[in-house]
Design goal:
This protein is an alpha+beta fold and about 220 residues long. It contains 10 helices and 4 strands. It has one domain: NADH Oxidase (3-Layer(aba) Sandwich). The protein has a 4-stranded antiparallel β-sheet with strand order 1-2-4-3. Helix 3 crosses helix 8.
């Protein structure tokens, strides 16, 4: 029995249908290159996708990301002109500009305050984490930017899996003019547009998932 089918069977036996659904979303995901132009997502559905994306991990719980949901015909056409005229940008129900924000240790107390208020984090932890993050990121522009890209990537992948679980296609894109996007959509100097992510109902003519390299090529045990 294939590994994923075997694992799914084990999870079902253990009464974990939600876990099985999550594994199926990972195993079944494929990049959607053709979207149904008539497809539509409500603002509530878009908010649900981003809500799930923000469950992804971030360093020190910085939550240093920003999701811009480009959903109107005018805004999508404007974004398409900055993204190598890729039809996915306008055909998808929504195309997200996913940004990481330069890591700023000064935001940590506010980001951790809800955890302290909830009673599971000691009150002295935020200041300790702020100091540790300051040592890691302060006056380290490359490290700040690297963290922004990592954060955006974690958020984007979680959004991709959320879309898959909701029966939607998705397509990450790096083919765009980052400076034009930053200027055209009002990004701040601390917002780093890492990628675009088109999401919506897929057209039927998309390819199936492309085969992956064998584990023997990519996995080492030590």
């Amino acid at each position: 029995m294939p590994f994923m089918a075997c694992l799914a069977a084990r999870l079902i036996q253990k009464g974990s249908p939600m876990t099985h659904s999550m594994l199926a979303a990972i195993d079944d995901r494929r990049t959607t290159n053709m979207f149904d132009p008539a497809g539509h997502l409500t603002d509530a559905e878009i908010e649900k996708l981003v809500h799930l994306a923000t469950k992804a991990p971030t360093s020190f719980n910085l939550q240093n990301w920003r999701f811009i949901a480009v959903r109107t015909p005018e805004a999508k056409a404007r974004l398409r002109s900055m993204a190598w005229d890729q039809a996915k940008v306008t055909d998808a129900a929504v195309t997200f500009i996913i940004c990481g924000q330069l890591a700023d240790h000064r935001t940590i107390p506010a980001r951790l305050a809800p955890s302290v208020d909830a009673g599971f984090m000691p009150a002295e932890v935020p200041s300790g984490w702020e100091g540790a993050a300051g040592s890691l990121y302060d006056n380290q522009p490359q490290r700040q930017r690297d963290e922004a890209i990592r954060t955006a990537t974690f958020g984007a992948m979680t959004l991709i899996l959320a879309a898959q679980a909701m029966g939607l296609g998705s397509a990450p894109m790096i083919g765009f003019d980052a400076d034009a996007v930053a200027q055209g959509f009002g990004l701040s100097e601390t917002d780093i547009p890492a990628l675009l992510l088109a999401v919506g109902p897929a057209a039927p003519e998309n390819w199936p998932q492309k085969p992956r390299r064998p584990l023997s090529d990519v996995l080492d045990f030590v």
